[in-house]
Write a structure and sequence with these properties.
Number of strands: 5
Strand order of the largest sheet: 3-2-1-4-5
Number of helices: 6
Structural class: alpha/beta
Largest sheet: 5 strands, parallel
Order of helices and strands: EHEHHEHEHHE
Helix content: 40-55%
Length: 154
């Protein structure tokens, strides 16, 4: 969508991507507050990472066991329903795949006006596996609100 710079911005659909971390719960609190202020639809989305090719290859040679994808999806769905249960107007949604790519794909097909995502990985994690939040900030076709982790008490 193209907005005139002077037109008020209206959020009709907010998406918040979460995992089971304190940082993500903080991001969800921000998304819920924005939903309450704007009356927007709130989609709370969790990405179930699909087993990687190398993990599958290692398992086929006896180097590990493959996770039960159906069981993981079911558990993730139950967990996600619990996360949104007390948030008025929130709807749970799950996607599967490489987390950053699956999330960007979901955003593209969901007519989202704003994405809320927490930042919480350390420097080493970001260097090795990349930043989920950074990927969304670069790839999403809508604004992305990056919620930093809470500062430790001083």
């Amino acid at each position: 969508r193209h907005e005139d710079v002077m037109d008020p911005i209206r959020y009709e659909h907010i998406a918040c991507f979460i995992d089971d971390s304190d940082a993500a719960r903080r991001g969800l609190a921000h998304a819920a507050s924005l939903r309450a202020l704007t009356g927007a639809r709130l989609s709370v989305v969790h990405v179930v990472a699909a087993p990687g090719y190398f993990m599958s290859l290692a398992a086929s040679f006896g180097g590990g066991t493959l996770p039960d994808s159906d069981l993981e999806r079911e558990a993730a769905g139950m967990w996600l329903d619990e996360q949104v249960r007390d948030i008025e107007g929130a709807e749970a949604g799950g996607v599967e795949g490489h987390p950053a790519d699956a999330a960007a794909y979901w955003i593209d097909g969901s007519d989202v006006d704003l994405v809320v995502v927490a930042t919480h990985r350390g420097l080493v994690d970001r260097a090795l596996i990349g930043s989920f939040a950074g990927h969304l900030a670069r790839e999403a076709r809508c604004p992305v609100l990056l919620v930093p982790p809470a500062l430790p008490p001083s």
